[in-house]
Amino acid sequence: MKKLLFVFGTRPEAIKMCPLVNEFGRREGFDVRVCVTGQHEELLRDAMGAFGVAPDYDLGIMRPEQTLENITARVLDGMGDVFASYRPDLVFVHGDTTTSFSSALYCFYHRVPVAHVEAGLRTHDIFSPFPEEYNRRAIGLSAEYHFAPTENARDNLLAEGVPEARVWVTGNTVVDALKATVSDGYKSRITERVGGGRLILLTAHRRENHGEPLQRMLSAARRVAEEHGDVTLVYPVHLNPAVSIAAHELLGGLKNVILSEPLGVYDFHNLLSRAYFVMTDSGGVQEEASALGVPALVMREKTERPEGIAAGTLRLVGTEEEGIVSACRELLSDAGAREKMARAESPFGDGRACARIADIICEKAREGSF
Ligand code: UD1
Ligand code: UDP
Q1: Which residue's CA is the closest to the ligand 2 atom numbered 7?
Q2: Domain tally, the chain
Q3: What is the atom index within ligand 2 of the atom nearest the CA of 177?
Q4: Does some domain include residue 195?
Q5: Domain residue limits at 33
Q6: pLDDT tens digit sequence for 228-250
Q7: Which of 96, 276, 288, 306 is buried deepest, with most CB atoms within 10 A?
Q8: Measured in whole angstroms, how far is the alpha carbon of residue 179 from the centre of its chain?
Q9: Which residues contact 231 (CB under 8 A, 6 or more apart)?
């Protein structure tokens, strides 16, 4: 019996890892355990609950206004007890969070092999997104198995000298997650309030955008809502106070803006699937919107998902107010422009990423590679 440990700590990791945990739960020959660092609390609990996954270990590290060094130190510190009691043969980490970076570093120190899910995303600017670009490159140094969601991500890894035999293109597991959440008959208080009108979904939370860029993004959203009284703009606000204070200051009190608590993933995916378009600085929302055929205006200077831009499902609009407003105006006034983005083919996978990853690991286990 091979012992697998899945380590994650934030909402996006949970959404992208739980379908994989469940896939391994259906396979023979593995003991599967989940360690959450608790980098997030409420957001993490909700996302795991939606997929019926419960943690076996919880490091409970979250603090208000936690710094990157707090998270790193607490994860490294907390991991010792977990490894002492479980001794995994292989550890799965995801993407680019500080939870993933610190766990991969712990594994490196203890010579435990790491499987990196969503490997190879790069902006090629170490400060953008911050600190995620650093984290994913560093995780790549520790990883033995690199599961790249796209050919482009694979090429990034090969260009950095990762041997071809250790990289597999699998698609992104978030597309697998959508299969479990999106349903035709979905209704909620928000869909009822939107009625037959157009819904714009907004998410914004990135560390490198806190302060002025976030204020410009939210001012742009305010102008769009004021100019188009017929649309409803829905913003589920991140729990980080650096985000929620600005959100309420700049978007509070408008009759066609709904500022909500973070939505459960089931609600979020279903609302996204019904959106006219989404404005976002999130990573995962870019892939989800593409997969659902919903145009995404990416409020960042750079994206590590350039295949979405090339395919035409995503448009990079920067963080300046005028650029964001004019992109929104175009989609709202030109149905053809919106349709073109909505019809573009998603490059992020076919919803079978988890099965591919599990097949590869089963084969490696049979070969005795770990
Ligand atoms: C982290 C990830 C980022 C990811 C984001 C998803 C890193 C470096 N960044 O962002 O890649 O996009 O999570 O949301 O790992 N909070 C709560 N309850 C929660 C979650 C957060 O109150 O359930 C508040 C806390 O005050 C916490 C703050 O949000 O201190 C920030 O959380 P943190 O995980 O540090 O956020 P980011 O680093 O911005
Ligand atoms: N999400 C959610 N509820 C919300 C907003 C987002 O469940 O109110 C989900 C969304 O579907 C996506 C993930 O959270 O899968 C994205 O997380 P986030 O934007 O926090 O992080 P990122 O992807 O930028 O790392």
Answers
A1: 265
A2: 2
A3: 15
A4: yes
A5: 2-171+352-367
A6: 999 999 999 999 999 999 999 99
A7: 288
A8: 16
A9: 197, 198, 199, 200, 224, 225, 256, 276, 332
